[in-house]
Amino acid sequence: MLGKLSKAQAGDISKATLNESNEPTPADRHHSAIENSHHNADDHGPAIRRLLAEHELDAAQIQGSGVGGRLTREDIEREIAKRDAQKAKQQVATEQNTISTVAYQSRSEKRVPMTRLRKRIAERLLEAKTARQCSPHLMK
User: Fold this and answer.
1) What stretches of the chain adopt beta strand conformation (E)?
2) Which residues of 99-112 are buried (b: 16+ CB within 10 A; e: fewer)?
3) Which residues of 48-75 are buried (b: 16+ CB within 10 A; e: fewer)?
4) Which positions ≥6 away from 71 have C-beta within 8 Å?
5) Count of C-beta atoms within a 10 Å radius of residue 79
6) Residue 90: pLDDT band with limits 50, 70, 90
7) Where does the pLDDT of residue 68 fall: very low under 50, low under 70, confident under 90, or very high at 90 and above?
8) In this structure, are residues 41 and 35 in contact, taking their beta carbons and an 8 Å threshold?
9) Nearest 5 degrees, angle CA 136-CA 138-CA 139?
10) Backbone torsion region of residue 39, taken as left when φ is above 0, otherwise alpha when ψ lies between -120 and 50, otherwise beta
11) Lowest mean pLDDT, pick from 2-6, 19-23, 62-66, 124-128
């Protein structure tokens, strides 16, 4: 036997143990700090900062999937793909409106006098067409 504890001393130890258990452990403090912290561009590695700068993205607007909520390359690429898809949808809608407007405007016809060469070509094509329709060997 190494020693004896009296009842008074045992009660003091149990109270001290209870008081200590209410305080968060260093690991708990670390996890809560990670959860509560918002990463700015300086918290990320150089590759992530470069991608954010190249594509003009805000790190606060992107949900990180890395350790502690940090941004990864995949997070940035996913955000770029979302942004490009939205731009493509807007661009397609704009192009469709432009095409319908251009098609409507291009319906007006403007007659231009034919050159002699084009006029002669048109005459020969018309002759060939009518000759083929009137040929007896094609009528069968």
Assistant:
1) none
2) eeeeeeeeeeeeee
3) beebbeeeebebeebebeeeeebbbeeb
4) 39, 44, 48, 52, 59, 62, 64
5) 19
6) confident
7) confident
8) no
9) 65
10) beta
11) 19-23
Residue with tokens 């009518």: 130
Q: How far is CA 75 from CA 54, 69, 90, 140, in A?
A: 15, 11, 23, 73
Contact (CB, 8 A) for 59 and 71: yes
Distance CA 127, CA 135 (A): 12
Q: Are 37 and 45 in contact (CB under 8 A)?
A: no
Domain boundaries, the chain: 37-106
The pTM for the full model equals 0.40
Closest residue by Cα to residue 65 from 79, 86, 85:
79
